[in-house]
């Protein structure tokens, strides 16, 4: 037995909810194993349950009940165990537990007083983008400059056209990293200038969002360089660089867009509404791109709706963030998408804007459909 | 059609191999869709295949063949598309493609001349740990100080005992982040000192490896603080902080240990030998902890053996790295584990060392079993 300890804690606790396969064994034992694995990863029979560590540090099984052939298990953990750290929160709720097959994470309540790890000055989340676009109620609009391989002048010209067409956010495709055809430091200035020119000539307010794919230690520098070049937002892929990279990308003070690339394996085991909604929001993202049914990727409509809800629903001090629907959006689908998701949404259109060789015209049609 | 482009590339290409579910449709169409999604994410019918982008940037389907009810699809991509960046490599091979259910990544060849993103001075990988331990041939030995909740003096005392017992690496449990019970900056000095004292008194050479769970932008600072306090290695969880965090943790020049927490969803869709072996190795890890059959987590023996091979097998300029077997290692299992995995392995024992209340004695028994 571990010698007695004198650990104290505030009593504030958060909860994580799992669905557990009955084949893993007696659900009470599995739940206690999970609670230990999440927190102390130490033989529980060596810890006195009435001791400081047993009382305050080991996770507590709050509920076990059958749900549709599986068991719903709710485990609470002292807020001090994560101490406001996104990294540690993820490590607790999806670290070792993830390695046990048949255990899926389906819900999560943020610790008390959880605020995004990085505080911007001014508006954040959906409000930040609405303010930038001067669009208080309509759906916001986003597209990407691409394909990878275009030189800087062609990317800049495309950005100009998309901005002139009235899009709110002109982001870089996530494929744009630091390739020789358009290196990051060489392209951000000309592209930012092209968008500024389009805005000046057309009275538009397009925001430029470069892709920050690169070493995570370089994210603060790249985000600052983007800001100094005139970008209004930045984009990272937390499915590649980890949710904690959102915080690093936010240090320059620009809103952060989270792209869903790389989340395929995770979203098979963790509810899509958490993967694409609550977790990026808790990590400090201001916008999260998710995929909609009817496009290039498979997703259930219920999961898409729950993702939008997880971005918008009031939750402690977390700002509502912009859920950006992508992966299958076209100009023609706008009325249907507005009907399904409401107007507190961003519509992200990629290849469809290039279909007839005049992306500016298609962007204008998109803007009209959003203002209708 | 996209206006003609004048893109050039070296001709050096790397390959990614997938297994694709036939239910997704005609496999040739699916493979071409994947090749586009990985690189340009642009309607392929708008790109002239003989054009610069069509020739050099769009992924190329190299092979399609049936394998056990699925299709094996090999896709090659120009090295310039990733340009030496781990982030971009992952984005290409497992970004948007991951979002298509029924597509699993099973193999990968590193781009030509791929070296770990961060170069240390002196030995790296397995060789670095063998040099630190002065153990040229025997299995290396690792354990963790835990549980979370212990104050600094108790953690330091435990580290002293484990070092005195003859372990090569005394790491912190991944649960140790920056909690109030033992904050990072307050604990690393006393724990390093306790291990130094044990080494001085007993002629041992234990290396201290603190857990760097925290904001990724803070990883270089924490790694440097660990080094300055006397740590000999550091540990991160790429399943939580992303593979690119390994590079950030390596900037202080210490060997990096990758812990497998959070990889559960990923390893359902990406071969475990890539998840726990080749990818951390390519990202710059010097040691990767993987789980072995017969313990607390489910894994196939073939996957465990393939993981060790992916850590050790000669591959370009990549150093062989230390595969650390965990999740179910006991003193009694040492002969069996050596028989299965050979002696180029690290044995990571957690709770089992604390079973009889004298971790130093159990550590000594472990060391004896490794030297036999």
TrEMBL record, chains A, B:
Gene Ontology biological-process entries: carbon fixation
Ribulose bisphosphate carboxylase large subunit C-terminal domain residues: 134-252
Pfam families: RuBisCO_large
InterPro entries: RuBisCO, RuBisCO_lsu_C, RuBisCO_lsu_C_sf, RuBisCO_lsu_N_sf
GO molecular function annotations of the record: magnesium ion binding; ribulose-bisphosphate carboxylase activity
Protein name as annotated: Ribulose-1,5-bisphosphate carboxylase, Type III
Source species: Euzebya pacifica
């Amino acid at each position: 037995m571990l010698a007695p300890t004198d650990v104290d804690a505030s009593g504030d606790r958060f909860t994580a909810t799992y669905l557990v396969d009955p084949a893993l064994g007696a659900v009470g034992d599995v739940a206690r194993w999970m609670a230990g694995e999440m927190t102390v990863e130490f033989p529980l029979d060596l810890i006195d349950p009435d001791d400081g560590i047993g009382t305050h540090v080991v996770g507590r099984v709050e509920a076990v009940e059958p749900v549709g052939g599986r068991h719903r298990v709710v485990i609470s953990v002292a807020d001090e165990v994560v101490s406001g750290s996104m990294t540690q929160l993820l490590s607790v709720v999806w670290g070792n537990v993830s390695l046990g097959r048949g255990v899926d994470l389906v819900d999560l309540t943020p610790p008390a007083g959880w605020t995004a790890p990085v505080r911007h000055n001014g508006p954040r989340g959906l409000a930040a983008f609405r303010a930038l676009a001067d669009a208080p109620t309509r759906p916001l609009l986003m597209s990407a400059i691409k394909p990878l391989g275009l030189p800087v002048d062609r990317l800049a010209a495309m950005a100009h056209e998309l901005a002139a067409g009235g899009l709110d956010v002109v982001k870089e495709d996530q494929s744009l990293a630091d390739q020789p055809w358009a290196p990051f430091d060489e392209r951000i200035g000309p592209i930012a200038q092209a968008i500024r020119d389009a805005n000046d000539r057309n009275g538009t307010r397009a925001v430029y969002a470069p892709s920050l794919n690169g070493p995570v230690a370089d994210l603060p520098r790249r985000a600052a360089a983007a800001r100094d070049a005139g970008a209004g937002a930045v984009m990272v892929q937390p499915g590649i660089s980890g949710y904690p990279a959102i915080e690093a990308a936010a240090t320059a003070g620009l809103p952060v867009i989270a792209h869903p690339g790389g989340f395929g394996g995770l979203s098979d085991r963790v509810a899509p509404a958490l993967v694409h909604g609550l977790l990026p929001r808790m990590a400090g993202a201001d916008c999260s791109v998710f995929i909609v049914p009817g496009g290039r990727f498979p997703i259930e409509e219920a999961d898409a709706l729950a993702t939008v809800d997880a971005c918008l629903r009031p939750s402690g001090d977390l700002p509502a963030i912009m859920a950006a629907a992508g992966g299958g959006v076209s100009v023609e689908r706008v009325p249907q998408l507005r009907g399904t998701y409401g107007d507190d949404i961003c519509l992200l259109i990629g290849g469809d804007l290039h279909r007839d060789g005049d992306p500016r015209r298609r962007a204008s049609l998109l803007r009209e459909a959003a203002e209708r």
